[in-house]
Each structure stands twice: as C-alpha cells, then as structure tokens.
Amino acid sequence: MESLQNVMPEYIERYKPREDEMEKASNGYLMSVMVIMAGMPLPIINLLATAAFYLFNRKSTYYVRWHCMQALLSQLTIMVVNSIALTWTIRAFTGQVPFTDKYFAYVVLVIALNIIEITLNIIAAIRVRKGIHVSYFFWSELADFFTAKR
What we know:
The chain is mainly alpha-helical. It has 6 helices and no strands.
C-alpha cells in the first residue's frame, strides 16, 4: 500500500477547487507579498503574517491548507536567510565584524533570493487563483508531510 504522503500530491493535482478555495489558497501566497511593505526591515513580520493566515485557515479544505502551508514554509526559509543578512549587517555597521567580499556576496544573494521568492509567490497566487496546482521544489514535500491526515 502506498504511503499517504505519496497519495496526497496526486489527489490535490486532480482536485477541482471551488471558487472560495482558490481565493483563500491564492491569498496565502499574496499574504507574504503584501506584508513586505511593512516587514522588509524585520524578516519575522512576513513569517508571522503568513503563519497567522495559515492558522486561520488550518480547518479549511485540504487544498487551502496545503497551499497556505507551502507559502508558510517558503517564508520560513526566506526569513532565516534574511535574518542572517540583517544580523551580519548590524554587526558590520557596529564594527563587530568588517565589511568583506563575503558579506557583499551574501547580500547580493539575499536580494536575488528575495526577488525570486516574491516572483514565485505572485506567480503561484495567480495560478492557484485559476485552480492550477503549484508545487515548489522541496517545500511541496514538506507541505505534504505537515498537512497529511494521520
């Protein structure tokens, strides 16, 4: 018998969501993009907003829960990357560590990752709003794991 983890992605890809489900799932991705205006300097704000949206929708349909979880996991990852950059920047400006080529390379990487993540979330929001299932590499398997019924 196949494990539940392997059955769920096939189920969600065949599933035809209702209009309200598509809207809620899409909003899960848009939550992180909208909060960027307030939370850019503090990486935790985007994560908290996305986590709150997931918690409000955790009793919703599997389709909505799954997409909210995937958005939350992507925000968690980007929050870690942004927190390292913020901490490193503060330490460099206070003189605790020097500005090095590694620092500038990391900042460029962080900026690129943020642009990619924002773009992916906008694309995912648009596609999910149309009822098209979107799976991110790595995060989709974690979303399967965390949202599967046990």
